[in-house]
Design brief:
Blueprint (H helix, E strand, L loop, with lengths): L1 H7 L3 H9 L4 H7 L4 H19 L4 H20 L44
Length: 122
């Protein structure tokens, strides 16, 4: 969430408050006068940086993780969450939303390496 908040010019708390009030990331971007495509680019860039820093994946696994993220990013950005639902680490290397079991580059629900994109607020 750090990269998202930074792109939007918000603190993490301000972004979390917007998400908790039922806004999607796209709503937050539009409210800040930012483009949704720019937001998606910032999210992908942060995800790639985190994957590169993890050093636990092969180049093919990294490429597959990025492709998977790109295939789901519109849903991630446009989905509004009900209060209390939050966002967390169900997407590969620690980025995404709690939507079932998530996806990952390993087995199960993915690896949790923390991309600065994850925040869980309870």
């Amino acid at each position: 969430m750090t990269a998202v908040a930074s792109y939007l010019g918000l603190s993490q708390t301000e972004l979390q408050d917007q998400m908790q009030s039922g806004k999607s990331l796209a709503d937050a971007a539009q409210a800040q006068g930012k483009s949704v495509s720019g937001l998606e680019d910032a999210m992908v860039a942060a995800f790639k940086t985190n994957l590169d820093a993890a050093n636990t994946l092969t180049p093919d696994q990294r490429a597959a993780a990025v492709a998977e993220m790109k295939s789901r990013i519109d849903t991630m950005v446009n989905t509004a969450h009900s209060p209390g639902e939050g966002m967390g680490a169900a997407f590969g290397a620690g980025m995404g939303m709690h939507t079932g079991t998530g996806t990952g580059t390993g087995t199960g629900t993915g690896t949790r390496t923390g991309s600065g994109m994850e925040t869980t607020r309870r």
